[in-house]
Amino acid sequence: MPSQKEIDRRYKNVRSQMEKAGLDALLVCGNQYAGFEGAVLYMSGFEIVHRYVYVLFPLEGEPTLVFPREARWIGDKAKPWVKDHVWPEVPGQWLRDIAIERKWKRLGVYGMNFVMAVRDYRELSSGSLELVPFDTEFDMARAVKSAEELAEVRDAMDIIIDGFWALVGAYAPGKTEAEIMAPAVERFFARGAGPRMMNILLSGTHGEAEAFFKVPGQRVVGANDLLLYSLEVTGAGGYWVEFSRPLLQGKPSAITQKMADAYPAALEAARKLMRAGELASNVHRAVADTFTKHGFALGHLSGHSIGTTMLEYPAIGAKSEVALEENMIFSLHPQVVDRDGKVCLYTQDTYRIGKMEGECLADVPWRFFAGQETPQTAAR
């Protein structure tokens, strides 16, 4: 549970953005889908277990947790610091009536495009209330992490690295992709991640990985299979971190090796630019230009801000003209693909924006891991 000082800081920052936008209130949406529950946790302390929840946050006055009636018995209602709870049959109707009663004209919505339930949007949009998309403004209000938040981020990072070493220890040809993943998931859950994890995989044969993500399944792994587990979890505090390193006991293909040769320089170029005042687009450009020189392109954005929501604004992309601020947290995850879009190499790291340069929160070298390494031997 964050301190009252931390809660007050969050609310002050959010209300500052609301005032600039001329909002009467803000509706923060969250649902069970991994990575989309965190805004509700950030604003109320409620942990979504199933279905969806809203936080109604007025410009003046106390917030309210709004649950659909069918979710009345789902989740620990004693845990959140927001104590005003309602369970309407159709939350959108209740919200519309409250807006009319309080004479609100403009309601900001975080999560309108991807999270809000359709039935509630229909109700809210049927009247005169103006619904204002507020994702960017909300994310910028929470982008710079406090000391309390940074402690939660570092705890999550310790958990994900613990799981990675369990994965390395389990890696062996003859096992399935799922069996190799399982010990890491066990560590994640035991240390507080709960359901807040998304562990997916890029893999392939002959020292190459196919350029599409999948769920680790029952495919038996061979010695020359390249495995790129994308580890994405939170700690008990709900802050997401991401991490990945390649696993391979055989030899990388010629194209995979060429991609690998470019990675250290690209990551270091990006880290040096992760500093206060630098544009996020310049960080992306440093990564993209490095790989372009080696004849490759990126599969998507270089990365994104990350916090209690898995994907937060701003992105690290070519059009992201946002000035970085100290103590923002970013996931950097360049996926390099060949000209045909079939073969790729991938990594993930989580960084803190510093005054002069970025801080990589994982002390794990970038290399191919064969399964015999330990934290002590990996750096040699």
> What's the CATH architecture of the largest domain?
Alpha-Beta Complex
CATH homologous superfamily grouping of the largest domain: Creatinase/methionine aminopeptidase superfamily
Which percent bin holds the helix content? 25-40%
| Average pLDDT reading | 95
Per CATH, the class of the largest domain reads Alpha Beta
Termini separation: 40 Å
Low-confidence stretches: none
Radius of gyration: 22 Å
Order of helices and strands: HEHEEEHEHEHHHEEEEEHHEEEEEEEEH
Compute the number of strand runs.
19
How many domains? The number is 2
**Range of strand content:** 15-25%
Q: Main beta sheet: strand number and arrangement?
A: 6 strands, mixed
CATH topology of the largest domain: Creatine Amidinohydrolase
Describe the structure.
The longest helix has 24 residues, at 147-170. It contains ten helices and 19 strands. The protein has two domains: 4-141, 3-Layer(aba) Sandwich (Creatine Amidinohydrolase, Chain A, domain 1); 147-378, Creatine Amidinohydrolase (Alpha-Beta Complex), CATH 3.90.230.10. The chain has 380 residues and is α+β, with helices and mostly antiparallel strands. A hairpin with a 5-residue loop joins strand 9 (226-234) and strand 10 (240-243). It has helices spanning 4-21, 38-44, 91-101, 118-125, 135-141, 147-170, 177-190, 254-273, 280-293, 375-378, and strands at residues 25-31, 52-58, 64-66, 85-86, 106-110, 130-133, 200-204, 209-210, 226-234, 240-243, 246-247, 297-298, 303-305, 312-316, 329-332, 335-337, 343-346, 349-352, 359-360. Helices cover 33% and strands 20% of the residues.
